[in-house]
Amino acid sequence: MNSDQLLSETDPDHDLVYGCIQNRPGAFDQLFNKYWRLVLRLALARLHDLPEAEDAAIEVFTDVWRGLRRFRGQARFSTWLYRIALNRIAKHVRTCQRRPRTVPIQAAADCEDERSDPQARFEEQRRADELLQAIERLHPDQRDALILRHLLELELAEVAQILKLSPAAAGMRVNRALQALREQLKTGKELT
Question: What's the CA gap between 192 and 182, in Å, rounded?
Fold first, then answer.
């Protein structure tokens, strides 16, 4: 980082980022541990498969490590990280779509709880699959806004900064995504 591109001292990650840039032992581990669960949740929202989501999240942190020295500090570190995550995860999704589908071996070995109602489990899984498919059919801009705001529970101002929008535009994008999602689920139709 150049002296004219310093990370704001008000950024909650200021010390950790500088620690990473200065190769302070354990600094990147702390950064990784702070954001791992959020990045993994973001990856799971798009990939719906834990091993794939973990791979994508690791790729995100690899990109972060490689790019830290180029981080200009024009936004909060977390905003920069989420932007990297959205891009890397989208790339990972595209890669997965080109691969043939397989079923994890664990799926064949899973034992069902004998006390649970098979019909209720089926219905719950069907609704979850329907919701995930509906989210995937959203326009990518709407999908990203919805995931950042409601899955990661980021403040609207941070969602706006990550998506490079005004807060009002980010709010409208989230609301339109919710509206499109509700409409899809109500009618069972795909978005065009």
Answer: 15
Q: Name the token pair of 61.
A: 């942190």
56-108 pLDDT tens trace = 999 999 999 999 888 878 788 999 999 999 999 999 988 887 876 655 555 54
**How far out from the chain centre does Cα 11 lie?**
21
* Cα separation of the two ends of the chain: 44
Q: What is the pLDDT of residues 103-128, one digit of tens each?
A: 555 554 454 544 567 777 777 778 87
CA dist 134 to 22, 58, 123, 189, Å? 44, 26, 16, 9
Cα gap 163→144, rounded to integer Å: 8
The pTM for the full model equals 0.64
Query: Residue length, the chain?
Result: 192
Is 54 within 8 Å of 8 (Cβ atoms)?
no
Take residue 10 and report the two structure tokens written for it: 């008000």
